Amino acid sequence: MLTVSGLEKSHGSRRLFGDVTLQLSDGRRIALIGGNGVGKTTLLESIMGVQDPDAGVIHKPKGLRIGYLAQELPEASERTVLAETLDGAEHIRDIATRLRLLEAELEHDDGSDLERIIEQYGQAQSEFETLGGYAIESEAHRVLAGLGFPPAWNNRPINELSGGWRMRVALARLLLSEPDVLILDEPTNHLDVDSVAWLENHLANWGGALLFVSHDRDFIDAVANRILEISAGSAQEYVGTFLEYVAAREERIAQLEAQAAQQRKQIASTEAFVDRFRYKATKARQVQSRIKAMEKLELIVVPTEKEIAAKFDFPEPQRSSRIVAEIEGATVGYDDEVILEGVDVVVERGRKIGLVGPNGAGKTTLIRLLTGRLEPTKGSVSIGTNVDLASFAQDQAEDMDPQHTVYQELMTVTPKQSNRNWRTVLGSFGFSGEAADRRISELSGGERTRLALAKTMIIPVNLLVLDEPTNHLDLPSCDVLEDALGAYPGTVLLVTHDRHLIRGVCDALIEVRGGRAVWHEGVNEKVLNPLGTIAADVGAERTTSNEQDAPKKAKKAAGNPSHASSTKSGEKKAKKRAEAEARNTAHANTRDLRKLQQSAERKWEKAEVEVAALQGQLGDPEIYGDAERVKELVLAHDVAKSRAAALMAEWEAATVALDSASR
Predict the structure, then answer these.
(1) Are 181 and 66 in contact (CB under 8 A)?
(2) What is the 3-state secondary structure (H, E, C) of 541-564?
(3) Residue 571 forms beta bridges with which residues?
(4) Element (H, E) at 167
(5) What is the spatial distance between Cα 466 and Cα 493, in angstroms, rounded to a whole number?
(6) What percent of the chain is predicted at pLDDT more than 70?
(7) CA–CA distance from 258 to each of 229, 305, 329, 576 (Å)?
(8) Are 611 and 639 in contact (CB under 8 A)?
(9) What element of type H or E holds 508?
(10) Which residue has the higher pLDDT, 417 or 131?
């Protein structure tokens, strides 16, 4: 068990947190939440020893293995994705090395030391089997696939990957290491909805201790069984899910408000007594006693959302044409590689559209098509009149000048002709007073994201393109962003893994997957949760309501009773027939590849059974009395393992070929 007692930390005169106490034991999964800049990352770094706390004690038992995922981007290297991931299983790798050394000793022993070698080999083999060593490479492939890596990427050098994918490698390596305590700082920031769903299921079944920072309500509710909130310089722990935390927090705040009101009455009464009898000699002792009591009194602080939430706001944009963008039969790609094919999408004025799907499927490509920044190789794209846009990208928060103040950074994009008070604008985004003069280098990740959003939102536009706007934002700011986007009078194209934000804002989804872009009217929970995750149950009721309201939203937003995606009955039937014929053709064209994949999978499974059988024999202590038999089994096991690995590679190649042919 890892324990933290009375932890305190300040930055200069500003106190981040004090008297933080928590316990991390098996099965305890704690979500750490709080406003931007309150010290969540600082607390994690204090536990890890990266920073020294001002006060408090952190107790880590000897031999405790802790895995930590920081927000900072890991260094690129020439190692492959799979090799780096497998390095996470260091405890298993060490035993494997010991086994290889013992096998070499066994092969060259003249019999003088045979008993010792066999005994040590049996112990090491038993430990290796218990820790799942024989299946570790298969487990690495499973974890990488869950985090969205195509099989062909497993042998790619890490330095060829983008920053987001490198973070995924770091997360895969960490999960494979299976530490006693897992500490994650914003683990979902670089994931798509599919990978978030997989990680959610994986961590919900995590047997060790878990402490993580996240702003994703669905993710927190599905994974955490405790909530630790940092607010007003102190930490409060709540037992239960996020929904239970919300109810318990409201009850606690109501109690604090009542206690604070009672305290104010007592202070007023004491002050009145002191003022009345301050100069009366017979009351001097009582007056001094009350003054000392007031000096020692610790004021009750009631946390409020206003302390940490920004107020996102949009200037009124000009009115665009009813059709903002239309794509008809478009095919698009790069360097002769087709990314999307047969795309038909109509975006009407006022629609709030979420783009979902795995990373690399083509969401960014589709946005470039919809905004006229990319020409299709086939089909057509038309942009409406009076359409002007602003974009927020994930890396904008990292592209600021670290020496700029918050105010100076905002002034790099402000309209010159405007007479708005930009300090007031910054205050609405959570940078009031002296906060507007803080250096960019001093800001937390969430504060930088808020500033980047401010730079995007202050210019009046009628088309807003947001790529993962909630990364690093605190929960209250996510809520305010949700309200602001709901009230925004223009059109929104939203790429995010935050399913709660999608449900609250979007009235339609475009699912980008397998080279296709499919329109879904309303918010379909099966699209948001393709794995049927725990969060699917949480959002199902709300989704049903959204689906019922979607036609009304669409009609109201467009200002026209007919939606562009609606066509005549005959055209619909013809389109459905054409789609069915296309599916049948694709199914026939990939029949041989499917058979090849299924055959490879059967052979691989058979080889794994053989490995498991030999593994079971090696786990029998009685065989170690027969040295020749041990040698035979070790050799047979090595051969079977190599064959299983080769067959797994065949299955991966067949899977990649089938996936490419299905697009």
Answers:
(1) yes
(2) HHHHHHHHHHHHHHHHHHCCCCCC
(3) none
(4) helix 163-177
(5) 6
(6) 85
(7) 21, 18, 63, 63
(8) no
(9) strand 508-513
(10) 131
What is the average pLDDT across 324-345? 90
DSSP state of 279: T
Q: What is the pLDDT of residues 37-71, one digit of tens each?
A: 788 999 999 999 899 999 999 999 888 999 999 98
Tokens 């009813």, located at residue: 322
Q: Residue 201 CB: number of other CB atoms within 10 A?
A: 17
Phi, psi of 465 (to 5 degrees): -110, 115
Cα 127 from chain centroid (whole Å): 34
Q: Which has more confidence, 595 or 371?
A: 371
Report whether pLDDT(161) > 80.
Answer: yes
pLDDT at 530 > cutoff 50 = yes
Q: Which of 42-56, 571-585, 633-647 has the highest mean pLDDT?
A: 42-56
Structure tokens at 651: 């299955």
DSSP strand E in 349-421: where? 352-356, 378-383, 389-392
User: What's the mean pLDDT when you consider all of the chain?
Assistant: 80
| Burial of 91: CB neighbours in 10 Å, binned 0-12, 13-18, 19+ | middle
Residue where the block lists tokens 């990319």: 374
- Phi, psi (deg, nearest 5) at residue 657: -65, -40
Residue 173 and residue 282: Cα distance in Å, rounded?
Answer: 74
What is the 8-class DSSP label of residue 74?
P
Q: What's at 366, amino acid-wise? A: L
Q: How far does Cα 542 stand from its chain's mean position?
A: 22
